[in-house]
Specification:
Layout: H1 4-28, H2 34-53, H3 55-64, H4 71-96, E1 103-112, E2 136-146, E3 156-161, H5 172-184, E4 190-193, H6 207-211, E5 219-222, H7 226-229, H8 233-242, E6 246-247, E7 252-257, E8 260-267, E9 286-291, H9 297-302, E10 307-310, E11 319-320, E12 324-325, E13 339-343, E14 346-350, E15 367-375
Parallel strand pairs: 2-15, 3-4, 4-5, 5-6, 8-9, 9-10, 10-14
Antiparallel strand pairs: 1-2, 3-15, 7-8, 11-12, 13-14
This protein binds fe (ii) ion.
Length: 377
């Protein structure tokens, strides 16, 4: 009995699933219709499981040959390379990755809302699966030391919320409890919202009573996400304005913060076009960009953005121990799934979001972030 195929095929299957998941991630980063994406996801799922059903055929082929260079053997080689080399090396690099030097401190506390009703919104059955962390909110307190931050802004605070996905699961009581907790703390200078507020048109009427309760010293800023794009975006913008937010869209505005100018930039691409035109924007001010997707990092770097806030990818929502996230709807796949990244001149903070259209979170708690900015030493 030749045991080699029996050892290699499970690894090739993992590589096969990983390669197809990367393809799915890239497809989900594109502004294509959700119906196409759902069909593509179904096909990928079928392709992943059909590999296992072909095990006897693979074993016969590998054991008795002939093994010629043809598309099916070439794909097997790619899967083996992916399962043996790419996935382990990428996972190791991710686990060894250090927090960038701009992160001066990080603390997290748990807002445990288990016991709140789960409701009957979209995919409500998923919310009832065991070990779901949907109602365990992590409040992250981060201090960032940023190179171009004006000295007058030492200690400036930003509350960053993203991906609330109002649709009924979790219920409004859950979001009320989160807002209650946030309003009990110090008032932030800026409140920044980076999109995906609703998954149904009728839930846009939660925006004002919930997000309108947040207070700020300087401004509340907002951009829309891909889920808002599919739920009457003009209505979402109207409700955000009614709640007191400046909806940046794909545009910029200049604010004065503690006597210093701040360029606040919105980026709602690729779902809303055209992207912000910064040709007429002043050069000097600190540049803060709110982008729904972290995929705009290249654009932000080329436009000398100092701090970019993003969401969209939900940290992957399901994180496998050691391996981490897998399904991350980004052209960079799981590279910017959550956390802080610094690629000069831009520091990127990607929040895991508060909820999701699919209310399931394993090993990936929902998150709200409070950032304190300090000038670099
Ligand atoms: Fe989202």
């Amino acid at each position: 009995m030749n045991w080699l195929p029996l050892l290699l095929l499970p690894v090739a299957w993992i590589g096969h699933a990983f390669a197809l998941t990367v393809a799915l991630n890239i497809a989900y980063s594109c502004p294509v219709h959700r119906r196409f994406l759902r069909t593509f996801r179904l096909l990928i799922g079928i392709a992943v499981f059909s590999f296992a059903f072909a095990f006897p055929w693979w074993i016969d082929r590998l054991t008795h040959g002939p093994l010629r260079l043809e598309p099916i053997t070439a794909w097997l080689a790619i899967c083996l390379f992916s399962g043996l080399i790419i996935l382990p090396v990428q996972t190791l690099r991710r686990n060894l990755r250090r927090e960038p030097a701009v992160v001066a401190s990080r603390q997290a506390s748990l807002l445990d809302l288990r016991g709140q009703p789960l409701g009957f919104g979209k995919h409500w059955r998923l919310a009832r699966l065991p070990f779901n962390e949907l109602l365990e909110v992590e409040v992250s307190d981060l201090t960032l030391r940023l190179p171009r931050l004006p000295a007058a802004w030492d200690g400036l605070t930003i509350l960053h919320l993203t991906d609330l996905h109002f649709h009924g699961t979790p219920t409004r009581t859950f979001f009320d409890a989160v807002i209650d907790h946030l309003t009990q703390g110090p008032t932030p200078d800026l409140v920044c919202l980076t999109g995906d507020y609703v998954d149904t048109v009728r839930h846009m009427f939660w925006i004002k009573p919930l997000l309108g309760r947040l207070q700020w010293n300087v401004a509340g800023l907002a951009v829309l996400g891909n889920h808002d794009f599919y739920c009457r975006p003009s209505g979402v913008r109207r409700e955000l304005r009614r709640a007191g937010y400046r909806v940046l869209g794909n545009d910029w505005t200049q604010l004065e913060v503690r006597g210093q100018p701040l360029l606040a930039i919105g980026n709602e691409t690729p779902w809303f076009r055209p992207e912000s035109d910064l040709a007429g924007a002043p050069d000097g001010p600190f540049r803060l960009c709110l982008s729904h997707s972290p995929d705009a990092i290249g654009w932000a770097k080329s436009h000398r953005v100092d701090l970019m806030l993003a969401g969209h990818v939900h940290g992957g929502q399901v994180r496998v121990p050691v391996v981490g996230s897998l399904f991350v709807p980004s052209r960079y796949s799981r590279k910017y799934d959550c956390g802080v990244f610094h690629e000069a001149p831009t520091t990127l903070h990607v929040g895991r979001g508060l909820s999701g259209r699919e209310p399931l979170r394993w090993n990936c708690r929902p998150e709200v972030s409070r950032l304190t900015l300090r000038p670099a030493r």
